[in-house]
Each structure stands twice: as C-alpha cells, then as structure tokens.
Amino acid sequence: AMAALGAYRCIECNGEAAELYRDYRRGVLRISICKSCQKPVDKYIEYDPVIILINAVLCKAQAYRHILFNTKINIHGKLCIFCLLCEAYIRWLQLQDSSQNTDPDDLIRYAKEWDFYRMFGIASLEQTSFFIGIFITLWWMTPEMLKRKSDFILLLKALLLSTYGKLLLIPAVIWEHDYTPLCLAFIKVFVLISNSQAIRVTLNLNRILPWFAIFFGLILENGVVCLFQKMGWDV
C-alpha cells in the first residue's frame, strides 16, 4: 500500500495520504491514521463491497471518496454506455407505445430499429450537453479547481460513475404499474443528487456550487431538447 504522498485521500477530511494500510505480513494489517483528522484514512478497505455500494446509494461523501480516490475502478466508460442504452430503451418503448402501427412489414421493423439508434444518439447528446454545462460553470466559478487536464478527467470520471442510478430505469419499466412516471422522476432526481455529490467530493466544494453547476447543465440539456423538438424529432 506504499505510494507517493497524495496518492490516496482520507475519506473523512479529504486530506492526502501516502498509504491506506501497512502490511506487517502473516495477514496482519494496520489501517493508516490520517495526520489531519486522526481518523482512519479509509475504513472501507475492510468493508464488503455490498456495504460500500449501499453507502454510495445513500450518497455518503466517504463512500464516494473511497470509490473515486482509493480504488482503481475503471468501468466509467462501459457504465456510461450501458446507462445510455437503458435510457434509449425507455424512450424507444415510450415511442412505440405512442405508435399504433402494428404492421409486421420489414420496413416498419427497420424503422423501429432506427428509432432506437436515434434515441441513443439523442440521449448521448443530451448527457454531453449536460456535462458541458457543468464544466463551463465550474470552470467559470472556480478556475483554480480545474487547472490541469487530470482535474477534468477525474471530474468526468466522477460524473460518469455517478450516473449509475439510470440502471434503475430498466426494472422500473419491466415492473410497469400506474406509478411508473413517478418512479422515472424519482430516478432522475436521484441521479442529479449523485452528480452533485460526485462534484462536491471531487473538487472539495460546498453544497451550493455543485447544484448551481447542475442547474446550468440542465438548462443547456433542455436547450438541446428544444432544438430537437423544433427539428420535428420525437425525444
């Protein structure tokens, strides 16, 4: 667990740490203590992954710091694609529900397949514009926080990982009931809360600025939606 100073972060105070634990061999490990707050640097290294996931779902800052700074998770790209596929599938289903055409003609089936790809593209552009809005706002409000390319990459990784809530879209539709629209709205709110916590933890900000950035991101995203609607596309 030895590493250069600053390779890890204390999950309690966000202070830098050189190691998470020290291995005394024969299975004897000692968790490192943070020099700033005098608490264990990362208690989650002893926790079961399920417990860590539950804490992340509860949007605990400590769990986010553990995942972002003290683990080598590299699934953000694949997770992003899968979440976009989930969102595209939901939109595609809603589009099919609004269409009463049941003609099994090959041309109709091809058109429906194209609709799915179109929904995936639209969802991708909307999320991209949402992230761009967040980056522009944060760069404008706190330029010292995003000086290096690595800062942008870390924040992008945090935002991509924090969209995991979109995976709940599939079960919400599979177990369809009268409250499905309300469930989809709750999922949207949960994803935004996760995004806010990811920004706050990554840049060590207060609670207000991340929400301001998310608000601007939503404005830009809705601007893209309005543009598509003016072009006559179903979104």
Automatic annotation (TrEMBL):
Keyword S-adenosyl-L-methionine belongs to the record: no
Membrane-spanning ranges: 119-140, 152-175, 182-202, 208-228
Pfam assignment, any one: Arv1
GO terms for biological process, alphabetical: intracellular sterol transport; regulation of plasma membrane sterol distribution; sphingolipid metabolic process; sterol metabolic process
Keywords annotated in UniProt: Endoplasmic reticulum, Lipid metabolism, Lipid transport, Membrane, Transmembrane, Transmembrane helix, Transport
GO CC field: cortical endoplasmic reticulum; endoplasmic reticulum membrane; Golgi apparatus
Domain of life: Eukaryota
Subcellular location: Endoplasmic reticulum membrane
Primary location: endoplasmic reticulum
Membrane topology: Multi-pass membrane protein
Function summary: Mediator of sterol homeostasis involved in sterol uptake, trafficking and distribution into membranes.
Family membership noted in the UniProt record: Belongs to the ARV1 family.
Protein's name in the database: Protein ARV
Organism expressing this protein natively: Mionectes macconnelli (McConnell's flycatcher)
Lineage, uppermost ranks: Eukaryota, Metazoa, Chordata, Craniata, Vertebrata
